[in-house]
Design a protein that fits this description.
Layout: E1 6-9, E2 13-14, E3 17-18, H1 23-30, E4 35-39, E5 42-47, E6 51-56, E7 59-66, E8 72-74, E9 77-78, H2 84-94, E10 98-100, E11 103-106, E12 111-114, E13 125-129, E14 142-143
Parallel strand pairs: 1-8
Antiparallel strand pairs: 1-2, 2-3, 4-5, 5-6, 6-7, 7-13, 8-9, 10-11, 10-14, 11-12, 12-13
Length: 158
Amino acid sequence: MKSGRQEILPRLGLGPVRLGLSPAEAAALLGPPVSSNMRGSKETRFFANDIAIGFQEGRGIGISVGRRAKGITFQGHDVFLEPAQDMLDVFLRAAPAWEEVGMLVFPDLWLILSGFHDDDPDQKAVTIESFADWPSGFEDARPFRQSNRTGEVQNDES
């Protein structure tokens, strides 16, 4: 997996990199981490191709892919090469989203997007993590609906 295409697999992971894997399993798939940091009980290891994995109690709890990643796909579309609005449409066709603090949360897919609905290329990222306890951490999220191609957000309750 050190090169080539890597498909985002909702509720599972990124290609063969799955939620729940150990740090040693991640290194076997991605090569040794470039760096790491600890915040509380969570360790984040940063790998090549702008991939980061958060570990807690020796298991991967979140897989993040940043804007510099190459060959990351979702439903056959290159996530970081195709226009942000086009990719957003692909994700929105797959499941409904919720918005909170500049992020789009797809609880049905276990995905979080940033930088796509506001077309902020410096913030583009995709995170795959368990939403078994949804909406924990996202209590203030509101349904997202794209009303036009500029990314204007409206609350579905209005």
